[in-house]
Amino acid sequence: MDSKVASFISSHAIPWIAAAVFFHISVATTSFAADSFSTDGHTVLSSPPDGRIQNRPYQMNRLTKIGGESKHSERILGLYGDEMIIYSPSGTIEDVVDGPYSHACAAFDPETETVFLGSSISGGDGIYSLHLGQEDWKSEYQNLTAVGRLAEVENNLQQLANQVEQFSRPDYQTAVKPTTIVTGGSAEEIGEDFLSRHDYENVCFVQYNLFTEDYDRDILAAPWSTKGETRHKYDFSAAQIIAFAREREERKEPFALWAGHGNDPFYMQLRTIEGILEAAPTMAKAFVFPEMERTDEAMEYAVRTHLIPIAELCRQHGTAKVVLRNKNIFWNASCYLDLWRETLLGDKYRDVFVPSMEETNGRTQTISLSGRMGLWLCGYFDVLSARAVTDNANFSRFWEWGAQQNQTHLMRSLAMRTALGAETCLVNIDQGDPRDLATFYQMLDKGIITPPDPEDLLSVSDLCLGMKTPASRFLEHGKNGHATSLYAPREEPMVFDRMDCYWGDALTDDADFSNYAMGSRRRMLNSLLTNPYGLIASVPADIDLSEHSRFREKLVTDGEFFYNKHCRSVSAREYKETAVAALERSATRLPIRVEGDVAWVVSRINKTHIRITLIDPGYVSPADRDATIVLQHVQGASCRDILSGKSLPITQGRISLTVPAGVLRIVDISIE
């Protein structure tokens, strides 16, 4: 970097950014308008509706003052995803310019009339300059090219795409498990984006639609009789919805429906859902219900009169699933409370209910994955689901970053979850190009990544975490996505701690189990686990290990305390030494272990071949990662990178390699 530029950034950018944060936090943005407020509540900029501004969900308009000292030349520059918005001081929108990337911040140097743009939030490390005195500066913004780390990531992604295109499945891999991708709003959209570019044999694409029905809600009990969602119109008739389903059946177009939400599980009447299933018994694939965590009387009514009957109808009419896209620590805590334990943790609906996640405004992805994996491995669910959505990059509503134009973070997260066993992926892309995930879909189709059966997943520790009825403190803080009032200084750390919204990006306590056992060093974007001891699955505490050969040892917790062999509570800090000793014992029993800062999954392809998926864990901070595969209880005859085709040497049972920034490597080991 030029020394003058570096000096300017050092002395000017940080003060400007600090001043802009004030605007960023207080900017309220709708589809077409924006307002900014000062700390005392006064409006400092009010922008009227403007059709040039696109709807950018869950990311903030970052404002920077630009121009000369006179009011005549002063302007406000807004970075709103990949859009650059130019405002007059009064808030009138003068221009909207689309660019190829979303940037972290901006700083203006009045001496040179230059705007410096901070790095791309997709993981870049470059600084870009726009000289406002030049007539073509807007064109320069529209045509920015990646530099530094982001350019490296883009090159790695292109190389991966080329390798996937040329890949031929090895003779010893005879089967590819079918997978389902729920994405796009129509068969035409799916066809244009994906099916016209590749012939898929093992991936089923399912369109995702929303209908909210106009019906007399007096048939429901309070509060649902008068409570809908303000974001929806409720303007479809039952006949229209059923006609849509019938048309999909006739056209052989698979579809899934967003059927309810924790704010209103009753988007449609039960009889309308029955009509959908009768009209489309083979094409209706799923009913999706996000954020159904509550356990109050109103939710119990919804579960017993609506959700469970839907599960029964799915079984009667075809093979549709009910996908529970729940949030925060549901799969570690709320599912162990009476209502959900009775509904989900029995054998009755294991073939219908599918555990999935809403990981937006989330800081506990590591913990949640442990919970879902444990329930699946113990047989409480037949199918696992993965999810990718633009909003996943937001770990706090105080400062939103969900505008990545490059989809490498979502691709890697989906790759890990499918390598762990997820057969269904829910994908909603609002920023960037959804076709960026085509390489991942082709990896599924060709069997490069194929979801293993539970017994073929070899990177799960035989030490499990047994979850008792969750402690009230664990529940309160684990579900706190918005309230700052719960903060109390110098509290004794819990087994899982610092989960609230105000801990976003904070370091985890060194006594936190997710810190030392799962590799979660910060409360942000923990979607790609490094699992230094193998994946630690969370299971019901009362599970009988003698009936589950996968697990040999169990640590018991309620999320706040551990419980020793005498059933007495022990603090997280006091119990850490005992827990670490158990983790180290179990890790020595893994057939294969991976050392280094990588996310990893080991699965069995057949009796003589093991596949290891190694992933760059930097969700929005990609980098080259060194890793060492350690063969502990298998004898490796050879090792081959299945994408590059190159053989890797095995030296004293160890294989060293580097995972390129923003992507992954997959190796097969032939065992003796």
From TrEMBL:
Residues 215-557 form the Lambda-carrageenase middle domain. Its EC number is 3.2.1.162. Pfam families: CGLA_C (PF25291), CGLA_M (PF25290). Residues 594-669 form the Lambda-carrageenase C-terminal domain. It is an enzyme of class 3 (hydrolase). Residues 1-33 form the signal peptide. Residues 143-170 form a coiled coil. GO terms for molecular function: lambda-carrageenase activity. InterPro entries: CGLA_C (IPR057422), CGLA_M (IPR057421). Keywords: Coiled coil, Glycosidase, Hydrolase, Signal. This is Lambda-carrageenase. The lineage of its organism: Bacteria, Pseudomonadati, Planctomycetota, Planctomycetia, Pirellulales. The gene is cglA.
